[in-house]
């Protein structure tokens, strides 16, 4: 009886250690599962975007877009190109201001949920030349470059057929309200040529 009584604390301690180890295993397993879901979540969102475009499900596509940030992104790209053209044409300040306002208003009017179907119908043919067969979403994903730029930001670079000498299509997504949202899209543009300095000695 005395031996059983003296062994009681050791039994309780062993049971406590077993419970602690079991709790740790549960925590480690839950953390690993959460990390796996986090790493997979942007790829699931990308796949849903591709499926929505292929099936023309604009309702589903619109749910993964942050419209205000996408509007600002497209407006910035459009105005950047406009300013370059204006610099080469040397427009007066009034003409430059008017053109900037007109383009900004046009983007605000166009980049909306109501016009999403039209935007997709116009953007896809514009991105893929007419002499190129439409690639499957899976083939585009295979060539894509993906990266986490921040813990809440994910970027995808997609080289498009017919734009081998242009920049890739870039899609930026961020976690907002516990969901990945498309916040920025950069369309292919001509790459800026890199100037190479000559290292050959001068004959002068």
Automatic annotation (TrEMBL):
InterPro entries according to UniProt: DUF2939
Domain of life, source organism: Bacteria
One Pfam short name: DUF2939
Record-given protein name: DUF2939 domain-containing protein
Lineage: Bacteria, Pseudomonadati, Pseudomonadota, Alphaproteobacteria, Acetobacterales
């Amino acid at each position: 009886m005395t031996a059983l009584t003296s062994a009681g604390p050791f039994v309780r301690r062993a049971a406590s250690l077993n419970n602690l180890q079991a709790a740790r295993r549960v925590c480690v397993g839950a953390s690993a599962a959460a990390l796996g879901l986090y790493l997979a979540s942007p790829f699931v969102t990308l796949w849903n975007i591709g499926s929505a475009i292929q099936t023309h499900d604009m309702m589903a596509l619109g749910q993964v877009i942050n419209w205000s940030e996408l509007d600002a992104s497209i407006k910035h790209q459009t105005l950047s190109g406009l300013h370059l053209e204006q610099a080469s044409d040397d427009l007066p300040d009034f003409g430059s201001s008017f053109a900037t306002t007109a383009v900004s208003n046009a983007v605000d009017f166009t980049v909306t949920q109501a016009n999403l179907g039209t935007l997709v119908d116009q953007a896809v043919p514009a991105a893929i030349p007419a002499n190129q067969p439409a690639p499957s979403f899976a083939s585009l994903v295979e060539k894509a470059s993906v990266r986490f730029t921040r813990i809440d930001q994910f970027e995808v670079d997609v080289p498009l057929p017919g734009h081998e000498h242009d920049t890739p299509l870039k899609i930026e997504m961020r976690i907002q309200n516990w969901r990945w949202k498309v916040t920025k899209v950069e369309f292919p543009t001509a790459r800026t040529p890199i100037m190479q300095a000559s290292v050959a000695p001068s004959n002068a």
